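Notebook p. 47: complex prediction with pyridoxal-5'-phosphate.
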Amino acid sequence: MTVTLPTVYFDHNATTPVRPEVLSGMLPYLKRYFGNPNSAYRLGQETRRAVEKARAQVSSLIGAQYPDEIVFTSCGSESDAFAIQGAAVKKHLITSRIEHDAVLESFKLLEARGFEVDYVGVDRYGRVDPEEIRRFLRPDTCLVSIMFANNEVGTLQPIHEIDRICREKGVLFHTDAVQAVGKIPISVRELGADLLSLSGHKLNAPKGIGALYIRRGVRLSPLVTGHQEKERRGGTENVAGIVALGTACALAQNEMQKHSVEFLRLRKHLEVGILKLPGVRLNGHPDLRLPNTAHFSFEGVDGHALVVGLDLEGICVSSGPACSTGSVDPSHVLRAMGIAPALAKGSLRFSVGWGNSMEEVERFLEVFPKILEKQRRVLSPRS
Ligand code: PLP
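Predicted complex, structure tokens below:
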């Protein structure tokens, strides 16, 4: 099948294009510098140096105190699983209803193994109340895991307050920051959090590389046993992926300020245009939200049909998280926010990112009203 490549890509929360600087930086580690970083000779030591440089770049982006607080993994999902399953040493854990499946699946697994999990709810904007977490805490709670920013609606969580509560009670705090890292400033030193997950392909590095920040002194049982990564994650390091992640983190750190202003400008223009249409609501927090993400529900229409209609125009957006495309159930995030299932089904997420322009937003605003109207007529022919 020949696929016509999209001209407008507004789905950066699903994945991002690899930036040319990232690609050119990683290629030598797939060609000339192919050595195993654990080998003693110079070919190995060259790649070891590259891995350690990348570790410092990742650690600097999230404001970690020491580079060795970063452990490389294969993806955000593995980082989440490592943090959650690795910290499950006492009977009780706490998370929220709006976490990504990468987190929820680990909790399901722990429940099946006899652990007890409490799930905090969210308000209509998708925010967790830290006091609810406090109420759930028990003497046998070993971990609280709350995402930094939601992947669907973009709402930011009160991470600092949650961290304070966990610290008071001596409970470990993990945050899935896969959608936040590279988009907004993060400092684990200032903010707290003992464990933080991130993923390369959400910040213009390739798929298949992630990292987990583990605060010094925190002990986790490894998910993959072995001697690499100081016994914390077995497996020969994905050197090219690690170099790519390091470069992407360095670029994000240098350009974050400029990019977040630009992404916010695009997002706001998009929001103003869409909110002029009839029967639409903006989901997620009005202000405490990722600068690149806007999520809407449209009355009387199916989100998937809108995605298909836009795709025919060469525009990529999503109607739900990429990993659950094809699911007929409305998103668990929207359900937790109290959005009626019929409305939730008519939802679209726009996530802008590197490479997007105002012209693209304009093009979207030109074609979208016609697609929306057409799809509404399909579902309700007589209106
Ligand atoms: N956590 C969040 C919030 C995500 O959005 C995603 C991916 O969409 C993940 C975890 C999983 O990351 P990965 O695709 O690298 O496994």
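Notes: The pocket of pyridoxal-5'-phosphate is lined by residues 75-77, 80, 100, 102, 147, 151, 176, 178-179, 199, 201, 210 (CB under 6 Å). The radius of gyration is 21 Å.
Next step: compare against the earlier run before touching the bench.
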